[in-house]
Design goal:
Mean pLDDT of chain A: 91
Oligomer: homodimer
Distance between the termini of chain A: 78 Å
Helix content of chain A: 40-55%
Strand content of chain A: 5-15%
Number of strands of chain A: 12
Strand order of the largest sheet of chain A: 2-1-3-4-5-11
Order of helices and strands of chain A: HHHHEHEHEHEEHEHEHEHEEHEE
Structural class of chain A: alpha/beta
Chain lengths: 341, 341
DNA sequence: CTGAAAGCGCTAACAG
DNA sequence: CTGTTAGCGCTTTCAG
């Protein structure tokens, strides 16, 4: 059982003051090279490790960034996190990651915990359930950088990183219309979150351009859960005017739909054309391959990291813009292609 | 800009000592209910928040658990993490998560950082590259709980959580043999890690039981990357005796194989039967659906969390066992089914 | 270039 | 039940 060694131990050992040790360790300019190397050597030998608690307490900062996401285990989110981690790690920051599991209460709790843990900044992707935003006041009040990504809300001085969801929704729908669809169902969830709401608005806009929007073709699910599938198919089957297009705002769920529709005897894309959202790995695995909207998760993570770091450094540049809009991209695959006949 | 309020501020405000405030806030039994509620109220009003740095410094613990994983963005890992987070969060612990990206150097760096950050315990899934384990000495020397999951190494007093990879490899291979395969190729990577090595041993064992193991049918890849696919297919095609079975230790890569083989004109399962590993979502999406080994990621995360917490609490029970072996399960789907003809 | 000493905010042993 | 006080280990101002 090694016992911890402090700067006092080193100081005693070397016959210098703790201050000198501290400065040496931090490579302070006003310390002679000789003393510095002496200290470094002793630190090495004794296995000295800095105590961050003491350091943080003294410096009033933690070199830690908090992250709250709805859930960790989604391809998109874990990809975003991977990007954030890369940037943070390179800059010497730690990441405390927690998940809200779409619950407002858990989000509040996590926000509080992360505040108390003294994170230097907070990155948030909001829970679907969340309807109030006061819990972030602790951060904004003390001017601790706060950034929202993907699932965002507009709060003064809080940058957001999103894609143009309205446009993406429009593009997806327009594509189906271009392929000849006329009775397109929109399957989505939680219009409470602007990301989904905007996609819906885009869908509606595209539909309205050909004066076709029908309220009954909007299907809002509580969850993108495979258990919902039966009712979805039932709804499609029951439509008085046959559904000929499906815009599903989640690839995984779109894949469930494809499988269920095929099983129910529909031909895809002949009878129904389908487009998803996110460009998840599954979209390339399903047969027919799923058209979708490419959603640059890794890039979003990297930008979120860079943006928050630049705020922490006080540097003003492109990354510290109030809103970063990432380009999405329409990816056309078999599931939505017009069949030539 | 709210300014921070400390227990001294509260003490002054209420005309009591800081100690009383501290005790009240921590719900210490020897404080009168009256004082307690007085303090709580004042804390509420002033927006007091505990300073964890000071608290941690004093208590010499952080209520934080460090986690190092090879990569965040894999379905399996993010599922494990989700389980860990759930347990940690419920117990009031924060999670500092970092990724090694399969690099030994990064793993070392992260280990050091997490140590200095004063995590109370460390959970690790090893990088493929890692060949030395001295960097964990800082933890073992000071008796800081250290646990390995999935990609493990045996270090005294460090619990491990794994599945029986040897048995799983055996089961997968045996299944293919039972379906009539005789010339089975094993595609895997990084035999450096025991998880993969054990699966290989299981494969070999099953093959040897029918005296069929051939060294040339072992294909070890550096990465499960889609770029490797062409050479894999080439190798299969070039085999003097036709390959009739494929045991791939990763579902995603198995899916790449299926797609490429189908494209190359092979019929699955008629010409080649395939089994993967992990039961990733993609395995149910591909056509034909992929047989695989169910790998209980969420459960592994939950157990890892519980195990480490019980170590931290000093409680001795089942969860503090040195090795936890989770049950895997053979899942048989279309890709490996014997065709009746 | 180096040292002394105060302070970061909280906890806990000891005393009352 | 409450107060006094001495740390926890590091940083940093101010003196030298």
């Amino acid at each position: 059982m090694e016992k911890k060694v402090t700067i006092y131990d080193l100081a005693k050992r070397l016959g210098v003051s703790p201050a000198t040790v501290s400065r040496s360790l931090n490579d302070h300019p006003s310390i002679s090279l000789k003393t510095k190397s002496k200290v470094m050597l002793a630190a090495e030998e004794t296995g000295y490790r800095i105590n961050k608690f003491a350091s943080n307490l003294s410096l009033q900062k933690s070199n830690t960034i908090g992250v709250i996401v709805p859930k960790l285990n989604s391809d998109f989110m874990s990809t975003v996190l991977s990007g954030i981690e890369k940037i943070a790690n390179e800059a010497g920051y730690n990441l405390i990651i927690s998940q809200s599991l779409e619950s407002e209460e858990k989000e509040k709790f996590n926000t509080k915990t992360l505040f108390e843990s003294g994170v230097d900044a907070l990155l948030v992707s909001l829970a679907n359930e969340t309807k109030t935003y006061d819990h972030f006041n602790t951060f904004t009040n003390r001017k601790i950088p706060l950034l929202f990504f993907d699932r965002v809300i507009n709060i003064p001085d809080c940058p957001t990183i999103i894609i143009d969801n309205l446009r993406a929704g429009y593009d997806a729908t327009k594509h189906l219309l271009d392929q000849g669809c006329r009775n397109i169902m929109h399957i989505t969830h939680g219009l409470n979150r602007s990301a989904y709401h905007q996609r819906y608005v885009g869908y509606k806009k595209a539909m309205d351009e050909v004066t076709l929007f029908k309220k009954e073709n909007l299907l809002v699910l509580d969850q993108f859960n495979s258990r919902e599938i039966d009712s979805v198919i039932a709804k499609i089957t029951a439509s008085p005017e046959p559904i000929d297009g499906l815009f599903v705002t989640n690839d995984t769920f779109a894949v469930y739909c494809i499988k269920a529709l095929l099983k129910a005897g529909y031909r895809i894309p002949d009878d129904i054309k389908i487009i998803g959202f996110n460009n998840d790995p599954v979209s390339e695995v399903i047969n027919p391959e799923l058209s979708t909207i490419e959603y640059p998760g890794y890039r979003m993570g990297v930008l979120a990291g860079q943006s928050i770091l630049s705020h922490l450094n006080g540097s003003i540049n492109i990354e510290s813009a109030d809103q970063i809009l990432l380009k999405h991209q329409l990816i056309i695959r078999q599931s939505s292609r017009k069949t030539t006949n």
